[in-house]
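User: Before I run my own analysis I want an independent prediction to cross-check against. Here's the chain; please return only the structure tokens and, at the end, one sentence I can use as a sanity check.
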Amino acid sequence: MNPHLAELHPYPFEKLASLKQGVTPPANKPHIALSIGEPKHATPHFIQEALLRHLHGLTLYPTTKGLPELRQAIADWTCRRFGIPAGGVDAETEVLPVNGTREALFSLVQAVIDPVDKPIVIMPNPFYQIYEGAALLAGAEPYYLNTTAESGYLPDFDSVPEAIWQRCQLMFICSPGNPTGTVLTQADHLKLLALADKYDFVIASDECYTELYDDESNPPQGLLQSAYAVGNADFKRCVIFQSLSKRSNAPGLRSGFVAGDAEVLKNYFKYRTYHGCPMPVPTQHASIAAWNDEEHVKHNRQLYRDKFTAFIDILKDICDISRPPASFYIWLKTPISDTEFAQKLFAQQNITVLPGSYLSRDSGGINPGANHVRIALVAPIEECVDAARRIKEFLK
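Assistant: Structure tokens:
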């Protein structure tokens, strides 16, 4: 067996299940799950209908590269969304459809990393655990870049030693962040682009939460947007990951894309032809419909805004709670250890939240996820309001 399998950590939800094992919550309070970032809003009908209209496509082997119409829809959306002139993203060479960002985040690392030079993959801490697992199985060493309250829950690139940059082959960024909802600015991107040029590494930007933001007039900046703004029109060393899971409430569709540096994608495409992961043709047609429509996304954002407003209004007088600029998470500081908080909240109020320490690693003498819990406001607004009231009672 691959020896690196032994290096993998249990997944956060395995740890959460163990934490709750043997605990009996009150039977008179229905369970409210706020632990998993799984959208619960309805998938728009027009996406479902597009899928059904093309079920005859199940008789066809899909190609790894996907339908030209899908790649063009993705390229056009990327240009519209990130202020890049029409045609500025080449649908033929700078876009690949993928079966959700999770499989792509993992597989890109396998294609990029050269394991012979003691490579490092830098990632924010806390982080989406796929980053770490992908690095380990590719034979790379993860380097955890703490994001703490002191740094505004953003990665401090200046804190990374030069010896680490010299071994870095790939860096993950996640903006808007999971679990913090914080957003990298163009200045942050430009600093990182300069470092990538100097030390020759690929920037993998996980942007699956960019379409869930609070201020309709101020959408989060994208990496390709920043690169294009400073003349990097071929997006050298830049790769972004996008998904319909959060944007369009279609996590079960397993549809997203990778876009950016044509040379990186050329080699990644070669990897994917062997990996065996083409997107089914009906899924591609449903995806075209989704990427071509923005009205359902605006409606989706408003649903989350309403939930944030209601949830925070109930709790703001009893705890330190802030509204993130983007995502659907609240990163809540806990008055006791995060694991004790999560276990007792379940035991007393039948609410499940995720301990922050399960999303991070000890680094530099601290675990930056400790004494926080991640609360995913994915349930219907009535459940979110009920949860906020129960959490308030629990905190009292």
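Sanity check: The first helix runs from residue 12 to 20.
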